[in-house]
Amino acid sequence: MELKKITPFLWFNNQAEEAAKFYCSIFKNSSIINANPMSATFELEGQRFIAANFGPQFKFNESVSLFVNCDGQEEVDYYWNALIADGGQESRCGWLKDKFGLSWQIIPAVFNKLISDPDHEKSQRVMNAMLQMNKMDIGKLQDAFDGNKLSD
């Protein structure tokens, strides 16, 4: 097994293999490279990860998250719902924690385009709309960009 120069390493209490199977069940282009009682090596969309069971000393926190660039609302909804399933937790602005406590950002690709617009008023409206959301809603982001009043 050849490792890339940089590979994310995830510290688990005792759920490394369970987590690897969970993540591989969500992402279509994924596989478990190897797994044993202490660790699992897996790949999601071409990115390899190592997960290890090293005990409860350290927990995940929001200082590190995995960013999922989504093509449309259907993809945003799919990843959001799959990753919060079975005990995950919603947060604000497209962030969530999965049932293992790992933070994810589920972000539609169009968001970067909208907030990068040279018209500062448009991009600021998009940013303000996003700050009111948990899961990103492309329709509401586009409405904010276009200057339409947001509805709940």
Care to describe what's here?
With 152 residues, this protein is an alpha/beta fold. The chain has 5 helices and 8 strands, in the order E-H-E-E-E-E-H-E-E-E-H-H-H. It has helices at residues 16-26, 73-84, 109-115, 120-130, 138-146, and strands spanning 9-12, 30-35, 39-44, 47-53, 65-70, 89-90, 95-97, 103-108. The strands form 2 sheets. Strands 1-4-3-2 form a 4-stranded mixed β-sheet, with helices on one face. The chain has a 4-stranded mixed β-sheet with strand order 5-8-7-6. A hairpin with a 3-residue loop joins strand 2 and strand 3 (39-44). Helix 4 packs antiparallel against helix 5 (138-146). 23% of the residues are buried. The model has no long low-confidence stretch (mean pLDDT 94).
